[in-house]
Model the fold of this input.
Amino acid sequence: MTNVSTNVAASASAQMIAAAPTVPANDPLRPHAARIVSIRPEVAGIATYELELDDPATRDLYRFRPGQFNMLYLPGIGEAAISISSDPGAPERLLHTVRAVGNVTQALARQRVNDRILLRGPFGSAWPVEDGLGCDVILAAGGLGLPPLRPAIHELMRNRGDFGRVLLLYGARKPADLLYTDEYETWRNAGIEIEVTVDLGDANWTGHIGVVPTLFDRVALDAGRTRLFTCGPEIMMRFVIYEALDRGVAAEHAFLSIERNMNCAVGFCGHCQLGPAFACKEGPVFTWRRMGPFVETEEF
Amino acid sequence: MTDRRTTTAPGDAVALAKTDLQQVLDALRQAGYRTIGPRPSQGAIVFDDIERVEQLPIGMIDEQDGGRYRLRESDEAGWFDYVVGPHSLKNFLFPPRECVQELVQLDDGWECRTPPETGPPLAVIGVRGCDLHALAVQDRTFLEGPYVDPGYQARREKLFLVAVNCRRAAATCFCHSMQTGPAVRGGYDLALTELEDRFVVDIGTDRGAAVMDRVAWSECATEDLAQARALPADLERAMHARESEHGGPDEPRQRRMDPTGIRDLLLGNLEHPRWDDVAARCLGCTNCTMVCPTCFCSTVEEVADLSGEHVRRERAWASCFTEEHSYLASGVVRPTIRSQYRQWLTHKLASWIDQFGTSGCIGCGRCITWCPVGIDLTEEVAAIRGDAP
Done:
């Protein structure tokens, strides 16, 4: 068995994006210019921005892992922490799916193709895809929690033979809010089982209705060999994890991506303080084993 | 004439007539240092530029208690018998406001640059054992993680420290509990111990020795050295002894804190009723976080000119005692004073240990003194410990 898993790890690691020396190591507060290559409207209020770093040397150095984020910067307005939602295997093409909700993201929504913005990154911890080799992987996302998981979907598709079942449990408030619907077929064809739910159906909706945790009733888990990656509203992630734990998934195999106020992204500013960690530096991806007690404490 | 040494080396201790401290100041200034030292200003001892030893708060001491700070003339003419004021090294290495990026708009985008640190090197005179520990704590935040803060690093590398061994403690001091003082133990270029008419000067570094080579020091008499070593040791013993003494009703409580198992104590009591109790007293004014020599929270602000073509990113001190600090688009994580105070205290004394391998508290008592309602973290911890199972 040991030999087998070692071989699997070796074959997969060739395909996976390893932790690499990153752009911010040198001067972490310095942003880098990037061109908006394309803007794709997704659903109401949400668009995906494709960015390309201007400087060829920086572009060559830039690598990211699934679940990491960039600080997108509009001078005079400010920075926003946005997860990278594209394939880590193609780091020259950085996609960010953004909801226009604050100063920075609303200003971003006013930008056009070929405009220049700036970015710092990549920052933060990653979904430990490589630790799930040979395991079943459940990705549970709510609303805008799907973009931070899409790099993991790419990683899993590229190495599909090295994993057991791969399930995506995804929910949104209503059918019109579902992201990336034109990609589900590709994902299914690549061997990813997809269960979709909405809180509120409409006249055309024939799918499941209910919150994301209820989707666990539709799938049979092999708890001992399951890895859970979840991203979405904190309350959703909690109940997703409770469902997984109830079915026997270990707390150290349940990973969640926690949102906090990230101002500097490198552990200097203190805003994303979360119990024993900084969400920007040691997070955003944590195990439930480590963060559960703090996430469960009101206003901590 | 005996064969008097003409040079000193790290590890040496020499004697210096008090007024000849001026020569140390002069040597530092000639070497290009901006000399900072304790000065009375607006009723408190602050760190500010000094050129002459006469500017030192000679003969002044501070009386401190929860929410109270008073300067008065001392019976002795000590040069450094005040303890700590509201300022610390933080004010200079991690300034309250600092430009971290400058941007200029070009035809096809933005040019940005990290402003180089061009200020003169700093020499700070009068830092205490607790201050040196606070510096080591801030180093872990800005220098010893995966990322290095370039401005802090530049100022830190050039910093020259003239430390002072405390001869007295304020009622708010609890360095003896946190094992950060009162004795200065390393981390300085020069360390002074004040005797009646002279200082014993411990040389800590080659840079310190180079400065002393330009000063008229003399050999340190054995009895002077013994007296200098005994002073902070006697003070530490007195601080431990005072814990068992009960002062009169008008006497301030002498602070101490038991750090045993404090991480698990606090993180295991996140719903303790004491958080509600302290929240009813705390004004959320942020003073404790401003005067704390290890608090490092900041916010980067955009400062643009009228054209919008020139932007400065200015980093300013921030505080966890604000809603803005934990703001998310989905809501404020810590909207109440209860949750904000709990955040501050559990970070300072408990989760700091997870993050940096050390307590964030160095026992200087500044947060007690400068709290307008005199909230005392040593009392809050004792209350939680007293009720803890």
